[in-house]
């Protein structure tokens, strides 16, 4: 997966933040294939019962339409926002489906070595969501790299590029995040 690197994306992001009403449509035209590909990989990773890839990207677009134009200085900031928004869309849908199942026995979330494409059940995804929010309070970059890898299907090198950090730092961040999340989730089980 290679996120669009065209300077056009940054230009369109700036136009949207400056109030150009048509810029969001141009942006989505530019990034839609990549966002859909990311969502498709997530759905293929075992969460197809949660949402369809196309629906996930369309929900993201609707969220962007509802908000005031946001300042994204570059594609990294936009993809970080998209990662978080997709995660919240999934969580909102799970919560809506399971509102009557509160208090169910919690299971452990299986975390892969790279944290790539989590494959949890709905209850496990809610636990992971809460743990990621806690990690974001402690270290936002580590939480962001987990989001990019686990929810958007980025590889470690790709996530490092999007976060503008070295692959070695990304590996170290992922190792720490995996250990912290595992410990946090096991404490809940």
Notes on the structure:
With 189 residues, the chain is mostly helical. Helices cover 70% and strands 0% of the residues. The longest helix is centred in the N-terminal third of the chain and has 25 residues, at 23-47. It is globular. The termini are far apart.
In short:
This protein has 189 residues and is mostly helical. It has eight helices and no strands.
Essential attributes:
single chain, 189 residues, mainly alpha
Give a topology summary:
Blueprint (H helix, E strand, L loop, with lengths): L6 H11 L5 H25 L5 H14 L8 H23 L24 H17 L1 H12 L4 H8 L3 H22 L1
Number of helices: 8
Quickly count the domains: 1
Strand and helix order: HHHHHHHH
| Uncertain stretches of 5 or more adjacent residues | 103-109, 114-120
- C-alpha Rg (nearest Å): 16 Å
Distance between the termini: 34 Å
The main β sheet shows up as: none
Number of strands: 0
Strand content: under 5%
| Gross morphology | globular
Helix content: 55-70%
